[in-house]
Amino acid sequence: MKAITQAGYGGPEALTLTEHPEPKVGPSEVLVEVRAAGVNPVDWKLGAGYLDEIMESVFPIIPGWDVAGVVTALGPDVPEFAIGDEVYGYIRKDVAQLGAYAERVAASVRMLARKPASLSWEQAAGVPLAGLTALQSIDRVHVAKDDTVLIHGASGGVGSLGVQIAVARGARVIGTASERNHDFLRSLGAEPVSYGDGLADRVRALADGVDVVLDFVGGGAVHASAGLHRDASRLVSIADGDAAGLGGHVLWARPDAAGLTELARLADEGALTVHVDHALPLAEAGRAWQLSQEGRTRGKIVLTVG
Known about the structure:
alpha/beta; Quinone Oxidoreductase, Chain A, domain 1; Rossmann fold; 2 domains; 7-stranded mixed β-sheet; 6-stranded parallel β-sheet; ER; ADH-like_N; oxidoreductase activity; NAD(P)-bd_dom_sf
């Protein structure tokens, strides 16, 4: 099969389209014919070796943890799915080696759910990691009706989904983004504010404090929010370890079939959509990494396969 592989740590230039052996399908796994693979910042960070201290890597690596595709084979003991089922998932394994940037990938049923019928393959591939990150962050601090939620990085892949999930729960959402993305945030149901000096004053002009702060961008956002939240324990960051020292939480999303099913429900009920900023062919994975590294993407970057 064709796959993007990486022979050693490096940047976009290290990615090569190669022929790779077919995946083996073990117990409680299915073989997925990949239609689209999501691209996340963690892909190129892992590829550059930034996660070497916490995650084993076996080269050559096929990158990618987000997948949408069709089940084409079943391993032993898989009552959850049948051949032909359309699925999507966050397929992060214990060892980085056989990922989603390929024509086919084997994945555990605990990492998959049925694809949202209302979303295209490209949109569905953009949901799993970003959507679970947003959902698990929101659940961690129990976002509920009438909460005022400040989301940093609100126009990005995680943030744009977090805005919609919080709005669906009845929360008021204030989202930080560059000015060019303000209309986009309004379309999702958020009240936009700009990054930079004076952020706290701009938020206070909209609300007398916030109940929840969700940091999906890093870069000092948790410190910029320090005087805004009413309860520091309702602070979550996915990008800044200082959040824990401030009384909040640092979150790394876990694969979760139930969470994926919940995200699919929200999508099919019209409460969640995915903006795909770039959909590139598999062979252009290096270009996708470059775009992700630039940090100016609105919504998601995906690779199309087949």
